[in-house]
Fold Major facilitator transporter.
Amino acid sequence: MDNHLSAKWHQTFYTLWLGAFITGMGYSMTMPFVSLFINELGNFSHFELNLYSGLAFGATFVSQAAVSPLWGSLADQKGRKLMCMRASGVMACTIFITGLSQTVWMIIGMRFLQGAFSGYINNATAMMAGETPHSKSGWVMSAMTTAGIAGNLVGPLLGGALSGAFGYRIPFFITGGLMLAVFLSTWLLTTEHFTPIQRAAMKPMKEIIAEIPNPHLIFIMFITTMIVTASTMSIDPIISLYVKQLMHDHGNIAFVAGIVAATPGLGTLIAASKVGHTMDRIGPERVLKVGLLTAFILFIPMTFTHSPWSLAFWRFLLGLANAALMPATQTVLTLDVPTEAFGRVFSYNQSFQGIGCVLGSILGSVISGLSSYPMVFAITGLTLLINWLLVMAVRQVKSSTN
């Protein structure tokens, strides 16, 4: 494992961390304001605007969920570095072109195409999972998640400021350029110790699942990824519209919406390192259980808030809890799955992430369109409670089989 501690290992880690940071930043620089961008492209009713916003968010993840297993199988044959380059290269093109959109359907189409080739952060995480000693897995998985989260924190603030000053198209052009830089740095500065596996020599997933001590746990981690992602995505498409309502359509709505969108990222960023070390000490499952229950509790006051600033405060606390969710899920997968199946398992995980994004964005836009924005928070909180019960149930199964 000496090579893992070499300068090359650190260079790869820092390059992928920065790439994941820029990917997260680029996403959050553009996505919280897509609903406001769409609103400028036509004269839409309240329901139409919510529906188109949900479709623009969900389009990426429909295609992502459909093609992720194909990319995962390819990653196990060709390596994760190539997958990172594929994702960042296509994102550079599609995000830039989105900024040129003249109709809502062009935005939705570009988002669909982007999803079919997406997966930089997941592939970067899978690449580091294969390059990292198990004793450091919790910290490295948290650090890689922190990269995207840190980007999600900076992105809305930068996107809000740029949108307010120059219009909603500029953040798309800037993000496209940054993703081109990610493509080049990943190509030139990362090293992957990867032995290609011939397609004929790859173990079938059924055989790999049969060798895992507790396959139910892996499936519940996929479900957890789906529900946690849905809980984020049910809120993201409507956050700027909800802030607009809370501010009674007065003031710098884009900037305040950017702050409200960014606060969970700040909380996660603050807590991530501590949570990562805690996972290495007491195990990721216990951390996940506490995180899910805390997140459920925090959605209760968010349902009853009447101010964008109190909403920002509760979302900041939610960010602290979120630091225990996706990293813990990915660490369980890293520790329980054979290395040769990382690409496929992480791609299945990405498919569930995609399904969660679709369900969440549809849930958020339909509930807010038919009922109210606070109802989205109430129902989202309940899904996290259900997730906690599932994790508790699979823990009981695990302890009874030991």
